[in-house]
Amino acid sequence: MARQVISVPFGYVPDDEREGPRGTLWVYDSFQAYNMQQLLRVVGLAEQKSLVKVVFYPLHEETLRRMGEKGAEPYYRRADKLEELLDEMLEQAEPLIETHIDRWEGRRKKYTPMDTAFRFLSEKDKGPYFVYVTLEMANTMAAFDSFEEWIKKLRLFIDMRLSPSAVLHPKLEAYAHRWDAVE
With left for phi above 0 and alpha for psi between -120 and 50, is residue 147 left, alpha or beta? Predict the structure, then answer.
């Protein structure tokens, strides 16, 4: 493979790609009881961390059932409600970052494992990757075999405010340096 020679002026310093906003925040949740306040907290966290994009990833009811969450509303209702909340938020104030609802799981119409969803999102979006989850969802994710593989590739933001119990899964305790608590 031949190297490509380029000419640059004397004293040229390439721009640091790490400067400025970068990264994607995936919100991996059922969005069953989401309200405007929670949505603003997520977008505010993304703006505070200088991220470029927030991707809301509503889970299909079959995925939720297999994760142990019973009685979830149908996927399309939760996704439509989330879209209405996002539209309402955009009417109030334009956020500094891009927001997007990913409806891939709705098109699949079946159980989607966490690692399949994360692989799909990582192929689509630019890194580094951050995942915003509730404590219950984080404990459920930590129980999967693929958790150790993915916790090395992304960073978790765990919402501790909505959690009735503050009991952590042993794998979450072992990888405490890879997640941050959001109060």
Answer: alpha
Q: What is the pLDDT of residues 21-80, one digit of tens each?
A: 789 999 999 998 888 999 999 999 999 999 999 999 999 989 988 888 888 889 999 999
Residue 3 included in any domain: no
DSSP 8-state assignment for residue 50: T
How does pLDDT run across 152-175, given as a tens digit for each residue? Answer: 999 999 998 866 667 889 999 999
Closest CA to 60 of 30, 93, 17: 30
CA atoms of 53 and 22, how far apart (whole Å) = 8
Place 109 in a pLDDT band, splitting at 50, 70 and 90: confident
Strand partners, 27: 56, 132
Please give the structure tokens belonging to residue 128: 């580094």
Q: Residue with structure tokens 């794998």?
A: 171
Q: Which residues contact 68 (CB under 8 A, 6 or more apart)?
A: 140
What CATH number has the domain bearing residue 110? 3.40.50.620
Residue 159 domain flag: yes
Residue at 80 is within a domain: yes
Distance linking the first and last C-alpha atoms of the chain: 52
| Full domain range(s) for residue 177 | 24-182
- Say if CB 118 and CB 149 are below 8 A apart: no
Q: Report whether pLDDT(5) > 80.
A: yes
